Every structure is written in structure tokens, then in C-alpha cells.
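Inverse folding, one chain.
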């Protein structure tokens, strides 16, 4: 399993004062391959900002009144969904509820990764994605769900005993905010190093990564390549968002106790160049 060296000791957070999104975007366009960011959640509360990198959260699947409820300072961030907050009807334009953290912006030329566990929750999609919304939407998604009801093999076994977890690997370019449609979409099982379908319902921390190059987007889990998109690659800086969302294709939420996705760290680093 890959992880940054001495992650808990390095604490390579970038610190500083807040700046506007447009200023940060301009800086990114000028030095797209020089951005590094690492957050290990060792400090409690809202992570500090630096060079235009700001943090936010969205809490619609479980109430949150302060940052300490998400980041208590024990080295993890906790994003929880409660059954009573699940919506059985979509909100306007199909926007279903989120429980997420976000930071950025960052541009192409980066590897964006997250180490997390409990990502395959029935009825929810866990995700790490980039998002830019102005007149139109640009987006890159790595979406994880116990079983995708629209996949070629829906309602399959999901546990580690012969089951697997479904992925949606997506890019959006200039999508209409009112009726967003993905530009490119792949639906497939998560796969392990042996190439076989992999279950993520095993209470194991794994590293989920998006390698956002200028000509292609590569998705991986624990360093195992899952899919590459080359025909539709966003080219403008975007925020990084990670967490949970209720989605209509994510199956039934067959649980009553709160479900928590636990995040160990998130990291952005320049892609290695030959």
C-alpha cells in the first residue's frame, strides 16, 4: 500500500493568509507544476490557508456546527452520513445532498490523492473529485459505491468474500449547470493488483488518486491503475472535493447506524516528468 513517507511526522501543510479564487487561479496558470499541498489533520479545526488555497465543508447528510466535529485533531477527518438525512427525491436539477470537505484550487499537472477507509457505503457514493463552476462546469470524478445499479452487473455481492466495489470514472467539460451531462464516463469494478475485482468493504485504509495531466487523466487505487481518460481533459484550475454524496444509482442504504468515511490525509503533488 502506498503512502507518503512519514506522513504524520512531515506535516507539510502550506500556511498563510487567505486570497481570492481568481488570484489563486492566476498563480496556478503561471506555475501549474509547482504546487504541493499536504494535510494530515493533526491540528484541530479548519486547516489553515496558503497562497489562495482555502478550505470549506458542506454538511447535508449529518448536521455539523463547527470544524471540530469534522477535524478533532487526532490525525483524521470524519465525514458522517445519518439515515434520517437521506433524501428520496432529488433537489432541483438533480443535486443530491453532500457531506464533503474541499480545498484548492489546483490545476492540471498534479497527482491528487486521499488515504481513506469506509468508502463503499450502500446508498452513497464516496468520491474525490475536482470541480470548477462558472458559466459552465468542469469536473474530474473518482466515484466509489458498493454497487452501481446502472453498471453492467448491478446488485452483485459487495463484501470481500467474492464481492466487489463499483467505480465511476468521469470527466466533464463545459457542462450545462442546469442539465449537467458527463463528457466521458466509465463504469467498472475496482480492481486489485492481480487484476481481479476488488471489494473496498474491508475497513482498510486505501489511497485513491487522480493523476491530472494536460493530455490525460489517470485513476488509481493503492497504486493500481484503474482507468485512463484521454479524449476529454479539463484544462482550468479547480477545487478538490472529497467525501460522501447520496446518488440515485448507488443502491439502497440498508443501514440505520451512522456511517463514517475516515480520511487519514489528502495530498497534491506535481506529476513526475521524464
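Residues assigned per position:
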Amino acid at each position: 500500500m502506498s503512502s507518503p513517507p512519514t506522513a504524520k511526522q512531515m506535516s507539510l501543510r502550506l500556511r498563510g493568509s487567505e486570497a481570492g479564487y481568481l488570484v489563486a487561479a492566476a498563480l496556478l496558470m503561471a506555475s501549474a507544476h509547482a504546487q504541493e499541498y499536504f494535510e494530515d489533520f493533526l491540528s484541530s479545526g479548519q486547516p489553515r490557508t496558503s497562497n489562495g488555497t482555502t478550505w470549506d465543508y458542506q454538511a447535508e447528510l449529518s448536521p455539523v456546527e463547527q470544524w471540530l466535529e469534522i477535524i478533532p485533531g487526532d490525525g483524521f477527518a470524519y465525514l458522517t452520513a445519518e439515515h434520517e438525512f437521506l433524501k428520496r427525491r432529488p433537489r432541483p436539477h438533480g443535486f443530491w445532498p453532500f457531506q464533503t470537505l474541499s480545498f484548492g484550487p489546483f490545476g492540471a499537472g498534479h497527482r491528487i490523492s486521499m488515504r481513506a477507509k469506509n468508502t463503499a457505503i450502500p446508498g452513497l457514493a464516496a468520491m474525490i473529485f475536482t470541480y470548477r463552476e462558472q458559466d459552465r462546469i468542469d469536473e474530474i470524478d473518482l466515484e466509489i459505491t458498493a454497487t452501481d445499479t446502472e453498471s453492467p452487473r448491478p446488485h452483485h455481492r459487495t463484501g470481500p468474500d467474492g464481492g466487489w466495489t463499483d467505480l465511476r470514472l468521469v470527466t466533464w467539460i463545459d457542462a450545462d449547470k442546469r442539465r449537467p451531462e458527463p463528457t466521458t464516463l466509465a463504469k467498472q469494478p475496482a480492481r486489485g493488483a492481480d487484476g481481479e475485482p476488488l471489494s473496498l468493504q474491508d475497513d482498510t485504509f486505501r489511497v485513491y488518486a487522480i493523476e491530472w495531466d494536460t493530455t490525460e487523466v489517470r485513476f488509481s487505487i493503492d497504486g493500481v491503475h484503474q482507468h485512463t481518460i484521454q479524449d476529454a481533459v479539463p484544462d482550468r484550475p479547480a477545487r478538490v472535493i472529497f467525501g460522501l454524496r447520496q446518488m440515485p444509482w448507488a443502491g439502497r442504504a440498508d443501514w440505520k447506524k451512522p456511517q463514517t468515511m475516515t480520511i487519514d490525509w489528502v495530498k497534491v503533488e506535481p506529476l513526475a516528468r521524464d
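The longest strand covers residues 259-270. The domain at 10-270 is CATH 2.60.120.200 (Jelly Rolls).
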